Backbone:
């Protein structure tokens, strides 16, 4: 397992042998420590600091990398055998992260072959596999996916033995979200619409009950009426796409089917007639960053994109 970040501690006083002995004793104590971590499906007994972590969804992948840990294994999405492209920019080497199936179908044999000491997933994806995963290694399950990412972060941080880092990440993110919202003047007066094509014949308009919905809320933005929902998204047909209009509109596509569908949609007259499009306030975004990351890294990248838009508008 690689570490994206490291902490150096220094001190003075006492003899060199005593300092070395104390450090060795502290390291041994940490390695032997058994912690009980409460999670969505029960408790996990975790020994020391996990060094061989396997993650079974993109949000868990984003979170462990944010906490300075490179997992030994991770699932891929159904649309690609590659890990999200933004991860390399975050300092992770995708070649160090073995493939262990897809989100929909994790490969239990591949997971076991990696000899993990911790598995992270969530109840939205793998509740039915929990007992089998527990048989391989201590397994910590987050509550759902998407809008619960901030709730799950401290659970995963505790499992990794990095609770303080988890708290710091959340505080830094929330402070920055407020700062980015302020770049738009009165963000509560700016309705931000989110549109995603996934190749199903309908456009998904993402609501407040989604990962991207939480980031927009933390920045203080308003949402168009149809997207003021606790649901992850609502679907509209091409003939209803006008209901996606807003003061700002961000759109993306998932997979080849979504890309083809989005091309048809954005070339259509109803899309072209929307106010956001006509004003130049409809902005294409990277799907990995806005919809697959689902963690601190992804949230930070969304805030980067929003900052760029604010600068262009000023």
Residues:
């Amino acid at each position: 397992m690689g570490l994206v970040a490291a902490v150096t501690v220094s001190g003075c006083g006492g003899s060199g042998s005593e300092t070395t002995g104390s450090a060795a004793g502290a390291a041994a104590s940490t390695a032997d420590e058994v912690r009980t971590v409460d999670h969505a499906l029960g408790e996990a007994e975790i020994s020391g600091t996990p060094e061989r972590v396997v993650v079974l969804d993109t949000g868990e992948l984003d979170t462990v990398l944010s906490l300075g840990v490179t997992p030994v294994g991770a699932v891929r999405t159904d649309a690609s055998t590659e890990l999200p492209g933004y991860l390399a920019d975050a300092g992770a080497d995708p070649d160090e992260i073995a493939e262990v199936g897809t989100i929909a179908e994790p490969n239990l044999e591949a997971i076991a072959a990696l000899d993990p000491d911790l598995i992270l997933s969530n109840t939205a994806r793998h509740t039915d596999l929990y007992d089998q995963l527990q048989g391989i290694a201590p397994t910590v399950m987050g509550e759902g996916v998407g809008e619960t990412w901030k709730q799950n972060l401290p659970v995963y941080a505790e499992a990794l033995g990095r609770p303080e880092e988890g708290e710091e990440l959340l505080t830094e993110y929330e402070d920055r979200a407020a700062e980015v919202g302020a770049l738009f003047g009165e963000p509560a007066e700016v309705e931000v619409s989110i549109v995603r094509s996934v190749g199903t014949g309908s456009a998904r308009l993402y609501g407040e009950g989604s990962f991207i919905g939480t980031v927009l809320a933390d920045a203080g933005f308003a949402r168009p009426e149809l997207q003021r929902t606790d649901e992850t998204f609502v679907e509209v047909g091409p003939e209803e796409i006008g209901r996606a209009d807003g003061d700002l509109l961000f759109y993306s596509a998932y997979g080849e089917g979504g890309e083809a569908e989005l091309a048809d949609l954005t070339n259509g007259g109803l899309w072209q007639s929307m106010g956001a499009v006509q004003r130049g306030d409809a902005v294409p975004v990277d799907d990995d960053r806005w919809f697959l990351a689902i963690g601190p890294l992804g949230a930070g990248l969304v805030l980067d994109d929003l900052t760029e838009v604010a600068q262009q508008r000023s």
